[in-house]
Amino acid sequence: MGCPKRAIVVLLSFLGFLVLFGFRTVFTMVMVYVIKDNDNDGVTLFKECTINGTDYDLQLDWSVSTSQYFNTAYFVGYVITQLPGGFLAVRFSATKIFGGSIFISGSCFVILAFTMKYSRIIVFVIRFIQGFVEGVCQPAMSSIVSAWAPKSERARIVGLSYSGLYLSTSLASVVTGAATCYVSWHAGLFIYGILGIILSLVWFAVVYDSPGKNPHLSEKEQTIFEREGSKIKIASADVAKNIPWKSILTSLPVWALLLANVTRSWVFATMVMEIPQYLADVFGLNVATIGFLTSFPPVLMAVFIIFGGVLMDELIKKEKISTTVGRKLSICIGFGSEAAIIIVLGFVKSYTVASILLVIGEGFAGFGIAGYKVNPVDLAPQYASVLAGLVTSGVFGAIVSTAIAGALRQKNAESWQKILVITGSVHLFAVIIYAIFGSGKQQEWAQPAYEKLVTPKSERKQTTYESTNEPFPDTSSQNGRVGLHIFK
Fold first, then answer.
1. Which residue, 69, 84, 66, 71, is CA-closest to 131?
2. d(CA 29, CA 273)
């Protein structure tokens, strides 16, 4: 009796992203509070912060543009380690890299809670370090998914794992907004920093690099991986040496995915790091109210990520659509709708309407995320971390986003209208490009490394998982097992 080991991996991946990406929102919410220019006495759904004027309060004489530069420092560090992170996940243990990212970043938050009030330089350096270590987490997760996701469960496993990333904004907004107002200005930093350290230790103890390395894997689950696993080699110097760099860098589907990630990173940075400031500037809301309102969009997004992943898995499994069509539908419907809503958001006059639009737009975005996060595994299971590192380096879109926001932002609706229209437009452009050049096929250059080493090229069949006449095995009946119904 026991839970499927891949379900445990998914659960801890979900919690890892929930905490790791919650760090961004926690920092943003703390900045909204401690910078004097953001101390609003306008509309509020809650009583005023009770720590105001006490020993638990902190107000810094910094400009809002300073907080924008802290965000830029974070994303510079984040970009630097994307591609190296993909290589490291092929060369070394992807699970250790992911867990180490959470541990170091959580420790930085604890240090920041003690040192923020003393110097801008300290904050700048710590945010850069956090971005630097967090940059390896998504490439590493692609390797983990390649190893632990049977073909018929890829999208749902990716959806469940990554839903923590997007739900992180909701949880962190509520926790930090309330803790900052009613406990201490740095309570959110302590809470999330300590949670990150604890979670990383659990991760190190429980998660293995592959099903084959887990000594507790049941025979039933082993059979599933033998029939549906990606059959990739474990990270090693040999695998790293055989990475087909030229083919990767000249692949149109890879470039289409990269562009989608550039604009998605742009939008995500806007939603997480700029929207709280937008609500404060345009509608005069206080930090607790902002935390409450911004907690709803990520919840619907997480639901749509899971729903979208399960739906596409089922449609592809039953051969209603090809993998390529499934990925394109996810991205066009999800990100296309979100882009249009962001543009409209720049023209609304009510914080109630703005909040509803944010919920709808982020909900649709979840549908797109279920498609594009799994795409590196579709294109190249063996080198998924390398592709993920390459395309996730598109996070430089977040650097551009924060830089534009810092340059255009004034404390008025007109400046935010410009920011939001630009953001929505570039996102829509990337959706169109992906619809033309995107793919869900395993690429010819991405044959598993073990095949390349032992099978003559003349005898090797081109493998795609676009569609197959052989049905996926039915693993829904696992006698004597306790598991999640979603892992059929």
1. 71
2. 9
Contacts of 208 (CB under 8 A, 6+ apart): 95, 214
Nearest to 82 by CA among 140, 135, 126, 12: 135
pLDDT at residue 434 greater than cutoff 50: yes
Locate 73 and state its tokens. Answer: 């420092």
CA–CA dist 388, 377 (Å, integer): 9
Instruction: State yes or no: pLDDT of 62 exceeds 90.
Output: no
Question: Which of 366, 338, 353, 317 is closest to 467 using CA atoms?
Answer: 317
**Type of residue numbered 287:** V
The rounded Cα 420 to chain-centroid distance in angstroms is 21
Among all chains, which residue has been given the structure tokens 């299971």?
381
* 270's tokens: 């806007």
Distance between CA atoms of residues 159 and 151, nearest Å: 14
Geometric angle at alpha carbon 355, from 349 and 356, rounded to 5°:
100
Question: Tell me: the pLDDT tens digits for 191-214?
Answer: 999 999 999 999 999 888 878 788
Q: For the segment 134-159, what is each residue's pLDDT rounded down to a tens digit?
A: 988 888 888 887 788 787 777 778 77
Confidence of residue 275 (pLDDT cuts 50, 70, 90): confident
H or E stretch including 304? helix 296-317
Instruction: Give the three-class secondary structure for 64.
Output: helix
Neighbours of 347 (CB within 10 A): 11
Residue 195 and residue 36 in contact, taking contact as beta carbons nearer than 8 Å: no
